[in-house]
Amino acid sequence: MSVVSSLVRLARAAPFAARFKHTLPPLPYAYNALEPVISREIMEIHHTKHHAAYVNNLNVAEDQLKDYVGRGDVNSMIAVQNAVKFNGGGHINHSIFWNNLTPHGEGQPKGDLLAAIQRDFGSFDTLKTQLASKTVAIQGSGWGWLGYNKERGKLDLAACSNQDPLQATTGLIPLLGIDVWEHAYYLQYKNVRGDYVKAIWNIVNWKDVSARYDAAIEG
Amino acid sequence: MLWIWLLCFVFVCNSERIYEGLVVYHDELKLPDLPYDYNALEPYIDEATVKVHHLGHHKTYGDNTNKALKEWREADPTSPLARSSIVRILQEITEVPETWQVAIRNNGGGFVNHVIYWATMCPNGGGSPSGELMMQINRAFGSYVAFQEHFTSAASKLFGSGYVWLCENEKGGLVITSTKNQDSPLSDGLYPLLVVDIWEHAYYLKHQNKRAGYIQSWWNTVCWDEVPKLQRFWHQSRNSL
């Protein structure tokens, strides 16, 4: 028996074995890279404070959930679900969002994704108008999404409240999300959410959205 | 002697609270002026926030409410509810036709919620309640400190956008409750006495993500002189609503 496999057995048996911890993913660009569309100040707070808090609180909620499961405390397991959904959703959503954006926006999608958009919305402009309208109209905090409906084999739009994750909530596979929590834009755009949603098209990473689409139709 | 009565009349008229119009029918809701200057809540709530919050957000809720009410009234000229006060409409929100229910819940709620928010803050606020209200708080929560802790905890934990309220119920009991988005406690049969706005727009310019700092600051603006007046107002208005 090798030393390595002995150590692995020991680690698995250890009562205080390290639990999986979620970590804050780094941004794929500098905090000021999305200016002038999204300010450095917003990006820094959004990433290092808001997203980081979702990650930390998700880890706490998961630890609590594991304890409750271990003790068979069903009531507490149910009670902690909101924290898991909220913080887990926040972590999922923001991890997608940072990659949905790029300093080098190409303006519009290409290839298969563009073809799917034209098929399901008529034109790219129509998609933009409908997604923008749906997103701006969200009451309170939430996200507007372009998603893929695997069952029907088509693109679809959705609005989710708070940090409800798109896939777990609607079944749609997330392709492009627009965060309209006020923290995503307020320092720069104040109450004019429409201006922020209009400007964000300049920094959409259509390569990333396409890659998600390709994975969604294949998976 | 007449001039003394005239002065009193003028004084009483000028003392109208910004919430008094909420229980009366209006063709159009008008954004009330704040009872203080935009910088009056400094250093606790910054002038820039109060300005955008009042002239941007609150005004938009009023405008959108008026739009929805106008459409509803034109579509149903005989509806008595459509011609009631905004408070009455919120109390009977489930009776509003589906076409306008969401718009009125969100915008009418937003309009009224912000009136209560402004009304229960003031410069030189803070401290604690006295008299009958203090006794009620002690009865309901054990002590003022316990009430403050419970209220603060609710405000800290609220997910997303919404409000935390101190309300009086139909039986005269005090409760702490929270509403999401622009939902109004009036729709739950409660009468709002005090509220903290937890939407990010209420604090982001000054506090950014630090909601706890905002809540702590907000306690310094609470107008404990005004809360009993609002409470009496609801008692008096109930019969005419």
Outline:
With 219 residues, chain A is mainly alpha-helical. Helix content of chain A is 56%, strand content 11%.
Walk me through the structure.
With 219 residues, chain A is mainly α. Chain A has 10 helices and 3 strands; from the N terminus they run H-H-H-H-H-H-E-E-H-E-H-H-H. A 3-stranded antiparallel beta sheet of chain A has the order 2-1-3. The longest helix of chain A is centred in the N-terminal third of the chain and has 32 residues. The radius of gyration of chain A is 20 Å and the shape is globular. About 2% of the residues of chain A have low confidence. Chain B has 241 residues and is mainly α. Chain B has 9 helices and 3 strands; from the N terminus they run H-H-H-H-H-H-E-E-E-H-H-H. Chain B has a 3-stranded antiparallel beta sheet with strand order 2-1-3, with helices on both faces. In chain B, helix 2 runs antiparallel to helix 4 and helix 5 crosses helix 6. Chain B is globular. The termini of chain B are far apart. Classes of the chains: A mainly alpha (219), B mainly alpha (241).
